[in-house]
Structures are given as C-alpha cells and as structure tokens.
Amino acid sequence: MPIVAAVDRSERAGPIVEEAARLGTALDLPVHVVHVLTREEFVGLEQTSVTQSNRPVPMEDVIDGATRVAERAIEEAGAEATAVGLMGDPADEVVSYAEEHDAEYLVIAGRKRSPVGKALFGSVVQSVLLEATCPVVSIRAD
C-alpha cells in the first residue's frame, strides 16, 4: 500500500513529493511518484523523432522519459521514493495506478484556473478527485 504522488513538469512537483514523503514517513509506507506522458506529448516526440531520424520512438524510451520526470521531482524534494513513468490520459492512468497498487493515499496539486478554463480544458485534478477510490490529498502549491 504505497502513497502515490502524481506530478507534472511544473514547480508543484517538489511540494507534492514532499507532502507524499511526510505521509509515507508518518504511516511507514513507501512512496511512488508517478508522471504520465500524455498522448499529445508522445505524438510530438514521435513526429520529431521521425523527422530527425526517420525512426519512430520506442515505447520504452517514452516511458523512460516519463520516469525521469518523476526522478527529478524526487531529487528536488530530497525524498526517498520510487519513480514511475506512464503514458496515456493523466487522470485515468494515475487513478488506475493507485487502484492497481492499493494506494493508501493519492497526493496531487491543482492550479488556479478560471471557471471558463476548467470548462474548456478540463482538469486532471478534478477528474482524479471524482474518480479515485482512495483518499486524495490535494495540496495548494501556488
């Protein structure tokens, strides 16, 4: 039963991992830091790779790249955790990962958005809050 911390490439990643590490220490549980590479990001990488090298990007390389983002967040926080890279819809993948690993808590951070911005672009945090089957800790990292 880990504590799962969902991070992106923003400045919120460090505080998310720090909070997950505090929970992990308090509950004597491991921490898994998850970064999900979106399909759009993958398509961009694929197009760049094919244009530059005439070869598609191997899926393992994509997952390795996502894992490196998680590793950087762990280093930034100075925490002990396992880095996990995934690809797909961020909200779906984070919730699925938490369910598959029977997470004790899921730690996330939202960003300020106007109501119109939420309606137009959706919200990963909102989806995670609505879909997660474990308790979700949402921090404010503005």
Largest sheet: 5 strands, parallel
What is the CATH third-level topology name?
Rossmann fold
The CATH superfamily is known as: HUPs
Mean pLDDT: 84
By CATH reckoning, the class would read: Alpha Beta
The total of helices stands at: 6
- How many separate domains make up the residues? 1
Question: Would you list the SSEs in sequence order as H and E?
Answer: EHEHHEHEHHE
Strand order, biggest sheet?
A: 3-2-1-4-5
Globally, the shape reads: globular
Category by helix and strand content: alpha/beta
CATH architecture: 3-Layer(aba) Sandwich
* Count of beta strands: 5
Q: Taking Cα atoms only, what radius of gyration do you get, to the nearest Å?
A: 15 Å
Question: Hey, roughly how much beta strand do the residues contain?
Answer: 15-25%
The percent range for helix content is: 40-55%
Residue runs with pLDDT of under 50 for 5 or more positions: none
Spatial gap, N to C terminus = 29 Å
Brief descriptors of the model:
142 residues, 20% strand, alpha/beta, Rossmann fold, 53% helix, 5-stranded parallel beta sheet
Task: Describe the structure concisely.
With 142 residues, the protein is α/β, with parallel strands linked by helices. It has helices at residues 13-27, 39-53, 59-77, 90-100, 115-121, 124-131, and strands spanning 3-7, 31-37, 82-87, 105-110, 136-140. The chain has a 5-stranded parallel sheet with strand order 3-2-1-4-5, sandwiched between helices.
